[in-house]
Amino acid sequence: MNEILRSLVSTRFEKILIPIEDRLRLKLDEVRQETDHAPTIGAKLETAVRETLRQFLPSSFGVGHGFVYDAYGDGSKQTDLIITNPDNPLSYPHDEAGTYIVDGVSAAGEVKAVLDVIGLDDCIRKGSAFKRLRMSFNVADGIHPAVMPYFNERGAVPPFLVIAFENKVAMSTLKDRLSSAPLVPVPKGKENDDGRGNNPQPPIDAVCLLGRGIVWNIRPAIPRS
């Protein structure tokens, strides 16, 4: 893709995202007019984010919340945002909390009305628990060579995101906390014998700050064989 085309795509994508972000930020003001009860505000904003994502994701994908488990019996902490793919066998009506298997999850994460240092540390703990999960993977399962580097990079676990309506963490602190958070190794007994997808993972892959942008947690360079 040449630089001019990349610039056009970025500009058009931003034009799509800006009004969506504006609507979500207005939702925060609306909820605060209704109540000053922090847990209620948080729950309403989590619902707003899930409803917004459902409007734009393909129909074969779902958006829920609850807990994610793997075939080894390990589970995540309570999770505000769970994006499912066509491999997900379960769905829950009326935005009820549910139980999901990691093999049918494309991403998960937390929603924060106001992100502060305490909240960020909580997200890192939840992200660490989530990154200990692993998808089921058999030797016979084929992976296209073109996507093998990506699979090896991210491991057999989906990304974990944070979406914050407001941010009270200094950008330098945010970056330092993300980069210094210990990587999560593959738990014992979950390693793939052929080495595929066994790389340790950061607890949080990205923090989305509405109206300000995205802080990406870039993975360490992985040696190429």
Q: First CA to last CA: what distance?
A: 26 Å
Biggest pleated sheet:
7 strands, mixed
* Strand segment count: 7
- Which series of helices and strands comes N to C? HHEEEEHHEHEE
Low-confidence stretches: 1-9
Gyration radius over CA:
18 Å
How is this structure best described in words?
The structure is a single chain. Strand 5 (160-167), helix 5 (171-180) and strand 6 (206-209) form a beta-alpha-beta unit. The two termini are 26 Å apart. The chain is α/β, with parallel strands linked by helices and 225 residues long. It is built from 5 helices and 7 strands. Mean pLDDT is 86; it is low at 1-9. It has a 7-stranded mixed sheet with strand order 3-1-2-4-5-6-7, with helices on both faces. Helices cover 36% and strands 20% of the residues. The protein has one domain.
Layout: helices, strands, pairs:
Elements: H1 3-34, H2 38-56, E1 62-69, E2 79-84, E3 98-101, E4 105-115, H3 117-130, H4 148-154, E5 160-167, H5 171-180, E6 206-209, E7 213-216
Parallel strand pairs: 1-3, 4-5, 5-6
Antiparallel strand pairs: 1-2, 2-4, 6-7
Helix pairs in contact: 1-2, 3-5
